[in-house]
Design brief:
globular; alpha/beta; binds 1,3-dihydroxyacetonephosphate; eight-stranded parallel beta barrel; TIM Barrel; about 250 residues
Length: about 250
């Protein structure tokens, strides 16, 4: 039984003060929510204070990236252990914006995923094709490459607790959502690949989120698809009212 995970990726938005006010509001609005796991992923500086506010609530906290070493001479980096200590339990890894602007590759994603799992975090690993790749009809190859190489060597027990987010790059921040059928087709493909690369039990357990212009108007139909188990949301997760509606999509 996969419990849907609705995660807000705040990206580079909200100061610590704004994040705290927002977290307090969400705590009130989402008190008593069951049958769904809401998660917020603030910028690094706000992770710890937000986690403190949300401690004991139903809302999980995640970071938006991590490094693959615990400590050392790596200026500017933050380790999974530090994220865990701050009270967060999730970390987004391999978001397309990091692949596009910060040279993230499947190889770096793989190192980060393994380190995050070792630190006890739940990675939310992002995969997805660009518009050019979809038009060239290589979506399956690209997604397969992200999964095969980004997750290679992850033991089955760890894979079962890893979240994979399918985010077609052309749908991010564009208002262009994949249709529920388009998204379901890729999600079913991903689950089949997970079964082939690990086993059926792992494939059955992995939460597969969809991301890309998810909003209160389209969330219900997307979540109704058999292989869509949650959402990774950017813009619509930044307002308390719309995040509440997303979490309460049922
Ligand atoms: P939008 O919901 O703003 O399209 O962003 C999606 C996303 O990138 C979440 O990680």
């Amino acid at each position: 039984m996969r419990i849907p995970v609705i995660a807000g990726n705040w990206k580079l938005n909200k100061t610590v003060a704004e994040a705290l006010a927002f977290a307090n509001e969400l705590k009130t609005r989402l008190a008593g929510v069951t049958g769904v796991v809401p998660v917020v992923c603030p910028p690094f500086l706000a992770v710890q204070p937000v986690a403190q506010v949300l401690r004991g609530s139903a809302i999980g906290v995640g970071a938006q990236d991590c490094f693959w070493e615990t400590s050392g001479a790596f200026t500017g980096e933050v380790s999974p252990e530090m994220i865990k200590e701050s009270g967060a339990t999730y970390v987004i890894i391999g978001h397309s914006e990091r692949r596009q602007f910060f040279r993230e590759t499947n190889a770096t994603v793989n190192k980060k995923v393994k380190k995050a799992l070792a630190a006890g975090l739940t990675p939310i690993v992002c995969v997805g094709e660009t518009l050019a790749e979809r038009e060239a009809e290589v979506t399956d190859q690209v997604v397969n490459d992200h999964i095969t190489n980004g997750l290679v060597g992850v033991p089955a027990a760890d894979m079962a607790r890893t979240i994979v987010a399918y985010e077609p790059v052309w749908a991010i921040g564009t208002g262009k959502t994949a249709t529920p059928q388009q998204a379901q087709a890729v999600h079913a493909f991903i689950r089949a690949r997970l079964a082939a690369l690990w086993n059926n039990a792992v494939a059955d357990q992995v939460i597969l989120q969809y991301g890309g212009s998810v909003n209160p108007g389209n969330v219900k139909e997307l979540m109704a698809q058999p292989d869509i188990d949650g959402a990774l949301v950017g813009g619509a997760a930044l307002k308390a009212d719309s995040f509440e509606q997303l979490v309460k999509f049922k």
